[in-house]
Amino acid sequence: VAGLYHEVNLVGPLAKADAVISYQPGIWGYESWGPSVKRALDDFEAPFIFTSYNYPEADLDADKLQELQFDEAYWNSPGWTAEKNPFSAHTGRTCAVNDGTPLTEQDWWQCLV
Q: What would the mean pLDDT of 74-94 be, rounded to a whole number?
């Protein structure tokens, strides 16, 4: 299914999510994430789990979600605030764009409920 999560018409078994997972979505950089997160949490009542390349990005993602009116209560248990993901990739890479801070696939994760 192509399109922004909050705009696509999901039918059949896809019509109700048990959980919504997004890998390195870069929430901090896109206003468009607000309605998609809202759909997961409010319409589906599903946890929204997402990953980040490193702690600085995870922190920026959380700040952006708070700016989009997802207050701290959304991270309450069974959700969780940004933490190191024990299932992240085993190796990282550096990137000149972010001052050489290592980028590791799925390195940090957090969950809103």
A: 94
